[in-house]
Design a protein that fits this description.
The chain has about 280 residues and is an alpha/beta fold. Helix content is about 35%, strand content about 20%.
Length: about 280
């Protein structure tokens, strides 16, 4: 969760516009939750990028921690570090990420040059391997928390997403839209009372699929859809949202997740998307 555990947000940073936007998003979370923010870079050995990244992260830290005057507190506690190795492995295997409450990365980095974040590959790799909640931030994302959309279906992954969403919404004051998409069997035929079905489905969202949001007193809107793929229904509901939250299925026997709704949604989302794994242990 953002507001529990070590309360440390780790940002994958490579001095690209995407990583700077990710850092700004993480700093906003830090403001609302009191989390420390760590900017973590990765430099492949022999490239000479270590010094450049270190200087860039220090500059970004100063930008994120502007002082309003003598003795004023920074908006967030930000620290920096550069680790040697592939950024994908650094962000999944660094001691800094073990026990972190959240990892934040841009949707795409500089490119495929040595020591820099590969376009799209880091976010994709993390989604397949992370055991920590992950937020992927587009370059043009607004850093606001007005409306959060969460996909709900009653699975363990969905329940983890709802719990995480409830924590963040409570901390930021955001309203939440909980979306359930019923994908019928091929033989499905229309119900005689579609409005009755919708009322029952929305009641089930409040009572069974997302009760934590109700219990927390969050401004909650329920949306029930059917007759379409879950990915399509969730993305339609997330249009104009500040954040989309989706649960991640469990790791497979080789420590890798297969594709599914979460991955299709990751590729289609136009706002920041939080991918929440089922807690282990």
């Amino acid at each position: 969760m953002v507001t529990t555990g070590s309360n440390r947000v780790v940002v994958g940073f490579d001095d690209s516009e995407g990583s700077r936007r990710a850092a700004a998003w993480a700093a906003a979370v830090g403001q609302h939750t009191g989390a420390d923010v760590l900017l973590l870079g990765a430099s492949m050995p022999g490239t000479g990028d270590h010094v450049r990244l270190d200087e860039a992260m220090r500059a970004e830290r100063r930008r994120l921690d502007p002082a309003d005057g003598p003795g004023s507190a920074p908006v967030t506690t930000a620290v920096t570090d550069v680790a040697g190795g592939d950024p994908r492995e650094v962000l999944t295997g660094s001691p800094h990420t073990h026990g972190a409450s959240l990892i934040v990365t841009g949707r795409a980095g500089h490119g495929s040059g040595p020591g820099l974040f590969h376009v799209g590959s880091v976010a994709e790799y993390l989604a397949h391997h992370t055991t920590v909640p992950l937020v992927v931030v587009p370059d043009d994302a607004d850093v606001t928390f007005v409306r959060i959309v969460v996909g709900v279906d009653g699975s363990p992954a969905s329940r983890a997403a709802v719990a995480w969403c409830a924590d963040l919404a409570a901390a930021t004051g955001a309203a939440v839209t909980a979306v359930n998409v019923h994908e019928p069997f091929f033989e499905w035929s229309p119900e005689p009372d579609p409005e009755g079905w919708r009322r029952d489905a929305e009641r089930r969202i409040r009572d069974d699929l997302a009760p934590e949001l109700v219990d927390a007193g969050i401004d909650l809107t329920t949306v029930a859809r059917r007759g379409e793929r879950p990915t399509d229904g969730i993305l339609k509901a997330a249009h104009g949202a500040d954040l989309l939250v989706i649960g991640l299925g469990p790791l497979g026997p080789l420590g890798v997740r297969a594709g599914g709704t979460a991955f299709r949604t990751l590729h289609g989302a136009r706002c920041p998307i939080a991918l929440i794994p089922v807690p282990t242990g």
